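Please, structure for the following, as C-alpha cells.
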Amino acid sequence: MGRGRTQRHRRRKHNFSRSLGSDSSFINLLKWMRRNGFHGTFLNPANFRDTGRGLMASNAIRSGDLLISLPENLLITTDTVMKSYLRELIIRNFPRLSPEQVLCTFLICERCRGRLSFWRYYILSLPKDFTTPVYFQDAELCLLPGTIRTRAFSEKEKIVEAYNQLEHFFSNVEAAFPEFRGLFTFDSFRWAWCVVNTRSVYMKREKSVHLSEDVDHYALAPLLDLLNHANSVEVQAAFNMTTKCYEIHTLTPCKKHSQVFIHYGPHDNVKLFLEYGFVLPKNDQNFVEIPFSKILKSMHELCRSKQDRSFLDWKVSFLESMDSLTKLTCSLDGVSWKLMTVMQILSMEQGERSAWKSILLGQSACSDRCAKMAAVSLKAILLNELEILKALPKVPEPVQEIYHGHIIKQLRNEQQEILERSVELLESG
C-alpha cells in the first residue's frame, strides 16, 4: 500500500486539518492528472496536526466505497522506465539492474528534466527529504535500543551498497546524456530510494528479462501516496485489469472532513520507522524481540559443568531443527508463548528429554519446577535488557532534528514499557 511520509509529528492532541487546496503544487498535480485520464475523487489534500500531509474526505464514506482510481498511464513502474530514453542503457547493462535501481535512476533523471518531464507535477509534489534511518546521523542512530540500532545501520549500509553498485551504470547514463552529468550524487540517490521504498504501492509485475531476479512490485501512484496508515482500517487495493486502473476500496466508514486512512499491514513501530519513517502513538502491534544469542549467553552462565554445557548445546540443536530460535518476543500482553516455551525447554533436565517436542508443539505441559525455573531465568534476561536500555545516552534537548528525537524517544519508551510490563506479569505469574 501507500508508503510513509516525512515529518509525521504524531501527537496526542485534538486533530484538525488545513486544506492544501490552495497549494500550487497540489493544484497543478490535480490539473495534470485530470488532463491525463484521472476522473477525480472526493479526497482532498490536507495538512493534519497528527500526521502531516494526508487526504481528507469531502463527503461521508461508506464501507465498500471506491476511494481512488488511478489510470495505468499515471503509474510509474519499471514498464514506464523500459519505454523511456533509459531503455537501451538498461538492456546493455551487466549485471542486471534491480527494479528499485531502475526506478531510482529514472526519478533522478526526471527531476532534473524539470519542465520537459511528463512527471514534473508529481515530482514537485514529493517530499524533499524523509525521516527513515538513512536520513539519520550515525550519532542519532546510536541512541536507539540495540536491536533497532543494528537494523537501522543495516538500512544505511544497504543503500550505500545499492548506490555503489550503480557507479558504472551512472557513468554510462552521463556519457549518453551530458545534461545528467554530476547529477547522480548520493543525496539524490537517497532521495529517490526513499521515494520508491516509502511511497510506492504494491503491484506485482511480470519479471523482465532485462532486469535482475528481484521481485518487481513497485508502482509510484500520484496523489494516492498521500494516504496515511492506521491500524483500525481495512482496505482492498489492487490493479483492476478491466478498468486498467489501480483502485482502492475502503471497508471502513469515514466521516465528512475526517482524514481517510489505509492499512499498510500489521506493522509494529520498529517496522514502520525502518521502512516508512514514522511511528504511531499507540500501536497495539508493538513488541520487543529478545535475540536468542542473549538467551543462550544467560543460560550458559548457569551451566556448572562441561556436561551441563553439552546438554545445553543439545537443546539448542533441537530448537534450531524446529525453527524456534527466532521471533522470541514479548509485548504489553507479556511474554509470547513461543519465548516462554523455548525457555522451558532450555530449563529442562536430562530425564525430561522425551517431552521436548510435545511441549514445543503445545501438546503437553512442562513440570511446575521447569516452568518456575524458566520464568526466573527469563525475568533475569528481561531485567538485564532493561538495564542496557536505561544505560543508553540521554536524547539531547533540544535535539538537532526535533522529529528524529521524537522517534528515538518514543521507540525507547515503548521498549521500556513492554519490558517492564513483561517482568511485572512474570512476577505475578
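The radius of gyration is 25 Å. The domain at 288-428 is CATH 3.90.1420 (set domain protein methyltransferase, domain 2).
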